[in-house]
Amino acid sequence: EVQLVESGGGLVQPGGSLRLSCAASGFTFGSYVMKWVRQAPGKGPEWVSHIGSGGRSVKYANSVKGRFTISRDNAKNTLYLQMNSLKPDDTAVYSCAAVGSSWRGQGTQVTVSS
Fold this sequence. Notes:
Layout: E1 3-7, E2 10-12, E3 18-25, E4 34-39, E5 45-51, E6 58-60, E7 68-73, E8 78-83, E9 92-98, E10 108-112
């Protein structure tokens, strides 16, 4: 059974940082491009970032470029998203997914508020 389980979300003040993790199981994690997506209240899903299977190719949405860093540890079957300089507009449920599949986690809530 494929599982993607996110963790690390929470409430943080503007300018703060969080590190999200996505633990994968049930498939060959190291063979897939992985991505983070987010969905804010009342809005559609927004692609945030993706990372190649080997971890060397990364891309970011303009809205997070320079503030977020995606990474992965294929030995641990884990995807990460380091989020710095957080803004209220970053408030959303963040989910990880395997590109080209229907596999997506349930998400973790990130709330940026003073």
